[in-house]
User: Fold this.
Amino acid sequence: MDATDGISTPSRKIGIAVAVAALLVTVYSLISLLTAGPQVYGPQDTVISVAPGERFSIELEDNPSTGYRWAVSPPPPDPQVLKPAGSHYEADEPVVAGSGGTRYLEFQAVRAGRTELALRHCFQCGTERADSDGGERLAFRITVTD
Assistant:
């Protein structure tokens, strides 16, 4: 036992080890929260419920080399409830010319309410040819709750 504070050296070492372990767990938890991406939904998740301010993504199979792309179909979702927040594409591995991947369409919930989100997989979107093209369609019911 150490004569200066009444705590033995082995007990002090155990206490320091426990404190360091607790600190590491706390740091890991904070980093996980800060780096966690938005909730990801697939085409089968046609009913989505999120909180105001929450971001989420819809993941869809895509192959930009075909000329087709995913786009929001008219009418657009209610902008007071839901707004687009970008998109990104991740190619399948290995990356080979003409191979496909996954498109992530990102959205942010604005405030409480309900809106419809219609997506269309169209060829040359925004042209007359795209307007006459059938293309795959998906529909989602988005509810933003407090």
In short: The chain has a mean pLDDT of 83.
